[in-house]
Specification:
This protein is mainly β and 267 residues long. The protein folds into 2 domains: 122 residues, YerB-like (YerB-like fold, 3-Layer(bba) Sandwich); 117 residues, YerB-like (YerB-like fold, 3-Layer(bba) Sandwich). Helices cover 11% and strands 36% of the residues. The protein is built from 3 helices and 20 strands. The protein starts with 18 loop residues before the first strand and ends with a strand.
Amino acid sequence: MSNFPEVVRPQSGLDKADIVFEYEVEGGVTRFAAIYRSQGTDFVGSIRSARLLDLELVPMFDGLLAYSGSNEWIRQYILDSDWKWRALSPHLGVNCPPFCRYPQEGKAYEHTLFGNTYQMWEVAEERQVNEGLPGRGFAFSDTPDPGGVLAMDIFIGSYNKRQDTRWQYNPADGRYYRWNSSLPHVDAVTGKQLAADNIVVLAAEHVDRPDIYESETGSTVIETYLWGSGDAYVFRDGLWYEGTWWHTQGRTGLWITYPGGEESIHL
């Protein structure tokens, strides 16, 4: 899901996702990969192209991949994968529904694609790939682990001069509320500010892939190494825990460990 330029905000349907990954792409801006499991949404977007990191998340969550399109390099990676039938996109002949265009004055064509997750699941049913595999790591204890340090305000510095991320903790309801470039980040459908119970920040290596170019700008694609291990920062109930994340390619699950905490999967 797109997060830049500003005209794409506010997005629709992020509030219904169980887990949302925000990650850096070319130009120092971010996009979202939203994981829907316990509930869906009939209007989500705007939906944009697949990136290299998405190809890691699909096997990690045994999930479907819904996207607008991709450059030829990533398209070939998808077609060569053992989960290619779980890839849903107009790029691969899955059109409206579940992917439909909603033209809007002032928005470029690439920002007008939206989807319906219920209809995506119906397409997956027809393909016999909506397997309903068991999910792990979606449950959390009501009681915070010992050893947490007070953290009421989380600021992730500018990816560029026009974009940064902030989460502020509200003790009244125990949730972190999101700010996008100094403005409340709201959902376009509900008008309510986005909030989450748990925030996890993963420190991962980012490298240029000179063999792959981003189609729109012609710039070198960024690859995020979401395998191996690195530092992790876990926030919940106004508390901050430092730990380690690790993931082995080919293994389902992203594991996070921290002092006093349980091992968590799929964060």
